[in-house]
Amino acid sequence: MTATATPATRPQPAMRGLAVRQVRRGAVVVTAVCAGMSALVVVGYRADALDPAAVAALARNPAIRTLFGDPVALDQAGGFTVWRTGTVLAVVLGVWAMLAATRITRGEEDAGRWGLLLSGRVTLAEAVRHHLGVLAVVPVLVGAATAAAMIAAGAESTGSVLHGTGLAAVGLFFVAVGGVGAQLFSSRSAANGAAAAVLVVGLLMRMVGDGVPALAWLRWLSPFGLMALTRPFATGRGLPVVVLTCAALLLLALAGWLAARRDVGAGILATSDSRPARTALLGSVPAFAVRRTMRPLAAWSAGIGAYFLLLGLIARSMTEFLTGNPQFAAMAAQAGFPALGTVEGYAATMFTLLAVPVGVFVSVRLAATAADENARRLTLVLAAPVTRLRLLAAEATIAGCAALLLITLSGLAMWAGTAIVHAGLGAADALAGAWNVAPIMVLCLGAGVLALGWRPRTVAAVGALPAAGGFVWQVIADSVDAPAWVRALSPFAHLAAVPATAPAWRAAAVMAGIAAAGVVAGSIGYRRRDLCT
Amino acid sequence: MGVSALRTENLSKRYGRLLALDNLTLDVAAGEVFGFLGPNGAGKSTTIRLLLGLARPTSGRARIFDTDAADVAAAHRRLAYVPADVALWQRMTGAEVLDLLARIGPGTDTAYRDELIQRFALDVSKPAGTYSTGNRQKVALIAAFATRAPLLVLDEPTSGLDPLMELQFRQAVGVARDNGQTVFLSSHQLAEVEAVCDRVGILRAGQLVEVASVAQLRRLHHTEVAATFTGTPPDLTGVLGVDGLHEDGPAAVRFTLNGSPAAALRALADADVATIVVREQSLEEIFLAYYGQSPR
């Protein structure tokens, strides 16, 4: 007898294939960013004029350690690269890993697509295990590619491999954190929030552990701290990375175990049952936008506020160190951190960093609008007498106002930190410094609205581009001594060092103009296109 | 003809190479309950998205009462909508969703809404994340019926409802009709359409193939006749209105009748008829014939 139907094979390979399709594009991008940036910094490194006494002074300074991590082996290209890029790349990889983990598991389940998948021979626990298993390969590839790129660029091989392993372990840890979060909570946004909280707390623990000797043990509890404790290119310890990998594997096992103990579509933590209606902020489209923004705004404020409070607390130590060691002030200037010697210069430099999370916040809020449209949640709202322009105006305005609030809170947090250590930063100066990044946030808003109007699936990426992309662009341009016009492509090149200097009003006006053009073009597209309903 | 609640003129929508809707011209009078039928992919949901201004027509136009469908600020003051696939914010309770829709919508009769919540037996204190498909559909149905908007656009509104709730739905449509509201109902449930609709339109492959009242549809269509004879059956070939002639053995024939039966009856009367069975096609058979036939 000849069978014409597809014979029943084992379903697992097909499911892994599905998972691969969902992560491959992001995996390529994150691998290219990690390997590429590491190789560029190795190549750009020049070991001229680093006096050992000055390096020792640098290593002793708590502020430097808090901000950039323990400076070890700066006399080597590899050591310098780890110090300069290690934490940033670990955060990039960690964020991507946790978002991908929740997206391909809880996100697919949320959207109802797993109902069909799980009606076959695959159990929920198997689906979770195989999806996370496929995703877990990506950090390993990222680590291997980073190590290979550093060795190829001329760094010493043992240290490069150890650094790559540490990076891979952090990525693996956040795959597992995302995976566990996706089992605990019944919605993707809650799982993302929990995983992001782990990431932010881990980062703050690393910073405090590095900066305060009495709390150095905190680093053993943080994935970023454990990665730093491996000290590649210096003492080179394997134990921390073993601890981190074991923790990641335990969490991965926990995710699989939890998945076997819950229903499809439900979370381990029960969702709140019946409750009285809370009818505040339901009266109009803008009010409803405010309602949906409050919870994320609170979470982002807590994370970014804590970070800037910490930056304020170390301000005095940092500026005193740099005033006493002019050699490092010059080095920091070359690395894109000029004028760190005064508290105003320090604040200006640190506030520049604020543009990145605030720009990402704005683009994520607009992406939430796109997601609401794509999931058809907006259909009932748009069937009411609500024009698209009114909806878009409300969503964009509320996102922008929330971002301004976030900026203001960060300024106040930095001011509070400096006030506690009597660093002498005025509240008005702190607010001016924070508000100085508003044009970049507005640029992100313009880019996000443009994407919402014409390519709604790309809102998060396009919206974050001016901030995150512009920042990475500037770091790379500085590291490789790129020509001025290449640097000028990044909006960060046009920010004045407020409060150390006066604001660059003309540049701010140009950015606002570009953003306004984006908003107008995006609004036209949003009015004209078919909605995904 | 009186006021049109909904009118399309040569409405077309093209998605890339696919012509989803081809030159639809349709007029639904105010106060009418209109059934909109067609197989999957025929263009029913596309039509509704164009009527609601959620998608833009490639050509032609749609009007809600006397305003252009694209002017949603005006048009949506006079309509309420129930989508086929209701998606809600997971953490909001049913009551909160209903409150939001009432406050941004075209005006709501809250007393009637509370009555509808009772009738549809919906627990509005639960978050939408815990609702089944049917419960999410109930939220949208309650919100729409409670508006008393002059036009209700319902896209397969009962696909997730059990028979008891289906009954409630029919009653709510009846109340709407008594209030003079117009109902535009896209549905696959033929029994429901037959029970509530005055007129139906049948869409196939993007084209409107028929608009008629349910009674007209029956009349327009074949009647099946089976007869047996004591003697030799008459020769019915070529008799006006007789189709699909089929001999069941030496003394029995079957055929379908189109139009007036007079000629066929005269021919039968001349022979010795033993038994005769005349059966009207069910609505389902009529629709299946439309769904399956090639486009005109």
UniProtKB/TrEMBL annotation, chain B:
A GO MF label: ATP binding
SUPFAM superfamilies assigned to the protein according to its UniProt record, in alphabetical order: P-loop containing nucleoside triphosphate hydrolases
Matching Pfam families: ABC_tran
Entry keywords, A to Z: ATP-binding, Nucleotide-binding, Transport
Domain ABC transporter span(s) in chain numbering: 6-230
PROSITE patterns referenced in this protein's UniProt entry, alphabetically: ABC_TRANSPORTER_2 (PS50893)
InterPro entries linked to this entry: AAA+_ATPase, ABC_transporter-like_ATP-bd, ABC_Transporter_VariousFunc, P-loop_NTPase
Protein name according to UniProt: ABC transporter ATP-binding protein
Origin species: Micromonospora parva
